[in-house]
Amino acid sequence: MLVELNIENFAVAEKLHINFSKGFNVLTGETGAGKSVIVDAIGMILGGRANKDLIRTGCDKAILEGLFYLEKPIEINKILDEYGIENEKNDYLLITREVYSTGRSISRINGRTVTLGMLNNVTKYLIDIHGQHEHQSLLNSENHIHIIDSFGDSNFRSLKEDIYIYYNELVFQRKKLKDLSMDEIEKDREIDLLKYQIEEIDSAKLSKEEEEEIAREYNKLSNIKEIESNISEALNILQSKEYEGFSIIDAINRVISLIGGIKNLDIEIKKYYESFTSIGFELQDLSGDLRYYLDNITVDEERLAFLEERLDTINKLKKKYGNNIDEIITYRNEIYERFQILLNNEKEISHIRNEIEKIEKLLEAKCEELSNKRKEIASILEESLSEELKELNMSNVLFKVSFKKYSHFTPEGFDNLEFLISTNPGEDLKPLSKIVSGGEMSRIMLAFKSILAEYDKIPCLIFDEIDTGISGRTAQVVGEKIANISKKHQIICVSHLPQIAALADTHFSIYKNICGSRTVTQIKKLSFEERIEELSRLLGGVDLTDTTKMHAKEMLNLAVKIKNR
């Protein structure tokens, strides 16, 4: 359950700290006081989209923090272990989101930075938020199959995964068949093109090692004149006395002679003599090697022409088939595979058609099995929902799940589901979207949530103004239903109705204050006497009479009796 909520610099909330309790928590306040800010903050903590526009004006970032107590931590602890996040020994879980004015956001679980995907994998087990927009999702028949499927067990989900895999394989095989099912002229044209490309690449007999060797040899032969000129000049400097009157080797020998005359006078000089002697020998050897290299240089014009032609061939192939030889060879292998398929077109088509037939038979069986499981769920849901709606003052409602079969497969199977309802005796069943009012839709959604709460085991449910369109006795029964759910789940409910607020275990009032030149949202946990004042406001508006207060007190006392039944 959500134990603590801290909000800082978020919308009109400068700094809020809320301690929620077990059971039924209700938030009330004037329109625009900031009740939605709290729900939005919780949604963002759970991994909702970070909206920089909700950062308080003049601030660089908003900080949102939720502390959760895990009554059944096994499932979440498995995920935390997988992510390498330390489990708190007292079964608490701390989630923090920092949203910056730049649009960037940072999410943390128990102090460890996580991605939004990681965060959502954890928070889906913590809280289910029901806002007014969910009414629209219930009106959209495309969502009905997902609602039914949400009641499925692990075997049900495994079956859906199998169907998804088979469906994707069917799509893949059908695409292959479509690619192969071409007219003969088009097929022959592609065969000729592929054959030409394969022969062009194969005739070049490419190898990565050859390309490197050719490049080195071509670089040498194409620059042979420059090599010859530079080596000749280097030899003149090393050996010829005409170069400034002496050669480098003669000069080194003269240095060796001079140092050799005094080498025995100091041990340091002897080291210099040995070093210069070594250099002299090396220079003589290098000079001999250069002379040999120069004497053996030959210009093979035919070889140079061959290398130019070879490099030209390689570069042309690169432009057509890949940036390097590895890519050209990879491309060749790919088109060769396609070439072989086209040559054996009829055989391949027959093979693919057989595969498609096998997959379709498997899919048909799996989809039939899934459809039967859905019908079992739908039957239970129809009965359970009818019971829930009776408790919500909709005793004459008839609810059915319509099953139709698509003529094709989908990733969800072949079922086309739609919720049908009759709200009055004698009326025909009609699509949900066509006949229900706002108040009826609120109760139907609450009935769904009440049933789902028993299946999904989510410990905390948030109802954001689920009381839309209801009042009077209906409001009372809706409140009692929420109070009943709160016996097994923590409930956080935003409401304008005194009938619902009176049944809460913990009541918070949201209000605005002017601090200096800024408006800030504040929250207060109400005492019994303060609850009387707040319920009186919800009952009577601005003017609070003694009669209104007495009525409010009676509602609170009656609520205690109702919850103790």
Describe the structure in your own words:
It is a single chain. A hairpin with a 2-residue loop joins β9 and β10. The strands form 3 sheets. Strands 2-1-4-5-6-7 form a 6-stranded antiparallel sheet. A 6-stranded mixed sheet has the order 8-12-13-3-14-15. Helices cover 57% and strands 19% of the residues. It contains 20 helices and 15 strands. The chain is of the alpha/beta class and 565 residues long.
Give a quick rundown of the structure.
The protein has 565 residues and is an alpha/beta fold.
Biggest β-sheet strands, sense, barrel? 6 strands, antiparallel
C-alpha-based Rg, rounded: 42 Å
| Multimeric status of the protein | single chain
Structural class: alpha/beta
Give the integer mean of the pLDDT values.
85
Q: Please count the helical segments.
A: 20
What's the overall geometry?
elongated
Strand content: 15-25%
Walk across the major sheet and give the strand order: 2-1-4-5-6-7
| Unreliable segments of 5+ consecutive residues | none
Number of strands: 15
Range of helix content: 55-70%
- Rounded to the nearest angstrom, the distance between the terminal CA atoms is 24 Å
Draw up the topology in text.
Elements: E1 2-10, E2 13-19, E3 24-29, H1 35-45, E4 61-69, H2 74-83, E5 92-100, E6 105-109, E7 112-114, H3 116-123, E8 127-130, H4 134-139, H5 144-149, H6 154-180, H7 184-204, H8 208-221, H9 224-239, H10 248-260, H11 267-295, H12 301-321, H13 325-343, H14 345-391, E9 398-410, E10 413-422, E11 430-431, H15 432-435, H16 438-456, E12 460-464, H17 472-485, E13 490-494, H18 498-501, E14 506-515, E15 518-525, H19 528-540, H20 546-563
Parallel strand pairs: 3-13, 3-14, 8-12, 12-13
Antiparallel strand pairs: 1-2, 1-4, 4-5, 5-6, 6-7, 9-10, 10-11, 14-15
Helix pairs in contact: 6-14, 7-13, 8-12, 9-11, 10-11, 12-13, 14-16, 16-17, 19-20
